[in-house]
Amino acid sequence: MTIVSRRPAPDAPVLSRRASSVLVGFVAVLLSAASTVPSPIYVVYQKEWRFDDSTVTVVFGVYCVSVLVSMLLFGSLSDLVGRRPVILLAVGAVSVATVVFLFAQGLPGLIAARAVQGFGGGIGASALAAALLELAPAGARWRGVLSGSVTPIIGIGAGALGSGLLVEYGPWPTRLPYAILLGLLVVSGLFVVLVPETAPCGAGSLCRQFRLAPRRIHVPSSARRAFTVLSSTIVAVWAVGGLYMALGPSVAAAVLGSPSRALGGTVIAVLAGSAALAQVGCHRMAPRPQLAAGAVAQLAGLVGVQASLLAGSQSAFLLGTVVLGFGWGCSNMAAFRLASALAPPERLGELVAATNIVAYLGTVAPTVAAGFATTQIGLLGATGVLIAGVASLVLVSVAGLRYLPASAQ
């Protein structure tokens, strides 16, 4: 299988760089939102189709594994054929997955939809992040870094909150959220064709050929120790994200004793919203202090969340989630800033793919393990074990700060 991409004709109507940056950012939000739209609906599925929390984490795990496989096969695709065609392919795949969700009649449909959705999310993540960096104004690369770090988190929160509200207060709880998402995907795809190509390969009439095969995700040897330190931070961040996205609604319903379906989406949105605000607020900090501040907030938030679960307090749980989200946002942005500087421009998509692979490994493995642990030690016990594991990773990442490159000091 060979894919090539041509530059748009000189007279082709294209959006300005500023408008393109806004549109690409919106698509990044939308694809991330698609990943959490099903989360508040799982409670409805569980009641209708009678499956337990461990099955929920398996369905979520299918999505993460699909993302990983997609990144391993296509992680550097946008470096070779251009950002725009890969973004279009991602939007198309997520649209197909949304149609499958819309008409799903049982667990096999959910699994199939999650697999296709993960494929789209995986190929789109690196292309979108790289495009945002390349569309940033000259001398203001931090804007692209901020956009690439914030937009997925905004999407996670928006998808969960919007879906949760529709499930609680709207008609057709297992249909309407997907119908709205599908409409937004189709409209955004129509506008993506007007985005100018920004990949280095776009400087020629043809980008390089791409052949479908597993590809080694490369991290420069001089940066591997720093990347290892960053990996512990990324895993700690996204293990929390995975727990909230997969089991957050179940925790809200069972442990906190709330009958509200909207609360499940709200807890995810609170985590993601506070993370996004934290990134905007701390983006001018140097990366190393930013990582340190994020670690402190993560530890405080983890302690607060665990205490709230033991006490069964909704207000304390939300407060702990806000603090945890602040730590998530600062740590994630600092890691992304450092990781994006570890590769030359022609391999930027590949390096971003490596970062995303670590993130999804950190999401799927602990979350699925916690899901299966619920059958042995209950939801509260499994959540406590995961929280303890994440806290340990945070401490490891703090201990490794001295191994970061001089630019982080």
Descriptive account of the structure:
- The chain is an all-alpha fold and 409 residues long.
- The protein has one domain (14-196, 220-408): MFS general substrate transporter like domains (Growth Hormone, Chain: A, Up-down Bundle), CATH 1.20.1250.
- It is 75% helix and 1% strand.
- The protein has 13 helices and 2 strands; from the N terminus they run E-H-H-H-H-H-H-H-H-E-H-H-H-H-H.
- The chain has a two-stranded antiparallel sheet with strand order 1-2.
- Helix 5 (83-102) runs antiparallel to helix 6 (107-135), helix 9 (224-255) packs antiparallel against helix 10 (261-282) and helix 10 (261-282) packs across helix 12 (314-340).
- The longest helix has 52 residues, at 348-399.
- The radius of gyration is 20 Å and the shape is globular.
- Mean pLDDT is 82; it is low at 1-11.
List the helices and strands and how they pair.
Elements lengths: L1 E2 L13 H20 L5 H8 L3 H22 L2 H5 L1 H20 L4 H29 L5 H29 L6 H17 L17 E2 L12 H32 L5 H22 L4 H25 L2 H27 L7 H52 L10
Antiparallel strand pairs: 1-2
Helix pairs in contact: 1-6, 1-7, 1-8, 3-6, 3-9, 3-13, 5-6, 5-8, 6-7, 6-13, 7-10, 7-12, 9-10, 9-12, 9-13, 10-12, 11-12, 11-13
Strand adjacency order, main sheet:
1-2
> What is the helix/strand order?
EHHHHHHHHEHHHHH
Question: Helix proportion of residues, in percent?
Answer: over 70%
Distance between the termini: 45 Å
Instruction: Tell me the number of structural domains.
Output: 1
User: Could you say what the CATH topology is called?
Assistant: Growth Hormone, Chain: A
CATH class: Mainly Alpha
Number of strands: 2
CATH architecture: Up-down Bundle
Q: What's the helix count?
A: 13
User: What is the name of the CATH superfamily?
Assistant: MFS general substrate transporter like domains
